[in-house]
Amino acid sequence: MIEVTEAIKNLYQSDAFKGDVSFTIDSATYTASNILANSVVITESLSSGTNIDFNAVEKSCLEITLINITENIKELKGKTLTMKQTVLGTDIPLGVYTIDDAVNDGDYLYDITAYDNLYKFEVDVSNWWNTEVEFPISVRNLLISLCTKVGVSYNFPATFTNSDFMISRNTFVDGASGSGLFAKGDLSKDLE
Q1: What is the pLDDT of residue 45?
Q2: Residue 43 per-residue DSSP state
Q3: Distances from the Cα of 34 to the Cαs of 24, 145, 177, in angstroms?
Q4: What distance, in Å, lies between the first and last C-alpha atoms of the chain?
Q5: CA distance 4 to 49
Q6: How far apart, in whole angstroms, are the C-alpha atoms of residue 105 and residue 107?
Q7: Inter-residue contact 112 to 64 (CB < 8 Å)
Q8: Residue 70: count of CB within 10 angstroms of its CB
Q9: What is the DSSP string of 61-128?
Q10: Cβ 79 vs Cβ 98: under 8 Å
């Protein structure tokens, strides 16, 4: 756990604040000298539709242009990008993303689009639901199983609201994504 001191909080509230942002892809670290000015864009939304959908699960998107890259970065798609900011000697984690697209836009320029770990839940989990999950199962254990299936690390508390609620299989699914599994229209109607 990182302690964010009052001095760091005050810096973040300043209009003139600029921290040292860096990215790590595999074991290579890229710093401000490798980032095109004003190219870092993080898009986050609870619900991007015209109406608020409390069942929506939306991934965050990171867009960045890396410059001055002398080595040929190959096959970035699917790799993990970790972003941090160093403030007063403290490393503040800013996210872990999976690279979805990396376009070489010149000899030493790469446009990268990456998504947070919700991206990993956008896979078909029908077979997992239909054959691998042992029912009845608690909500907590179902979430643990789903995270394990899609390769996302987790740190759930021992208990949380409805964590012990038991789920029975009321339906088999076809083409259900991990991110939409409990969204309105998929299984939520069967779990009420």
Answers
A1: 78
A2: E
A3: 11, 38, 36
A4: 36
A5: 34
A6: 7
A7: yes
A8: 6
A9: EEEEEEE---S-----TT-EEEEEEEETTEEEEEEEEEEEEEEE-STTEEEEEEE-GGGGG-SB-HHI
A10: yes
Q: Cα(38)–Cα(74) distance, rounded to whole angstroms?
A: 24
- Tokens for 189, please give them: 């109607």
Give the Cα separation of 72 and 54 in Å (integer).
43
Phi and psi angles of residue 29, each rounded to the nearest 5 degrees, phi first? -110, 135
Contact between 12 and 43 under an 8 Å Cβ cutoff? The reply is no
Tell how far CA 186 is from the center of its chain.
Answer: 22
Cβ within 8 Å of residue 157, ≥6 positions away: 163
CA distance 45 to 52: 10
pLDDT at 11 (0 to 100): 79
CA 30 to chain centroid = 20
Tokens 């759930």, located at residue: 156
Q: Could you read off the pLDDT tens digit of each residue along the chain, which spans 192 residues?
A: 677 788 888 877 776 666 788 889 888 888 888 888 888 888 887 777 777 666 666 788 999 998 877 665 667 888 899 999 888 888 888 889 999 988 887 777 888 999 998 888 889 999 999 999 999 999 999 999 999 999 988 888 889 888 999 998 888 888 888 887 766 444 444 443
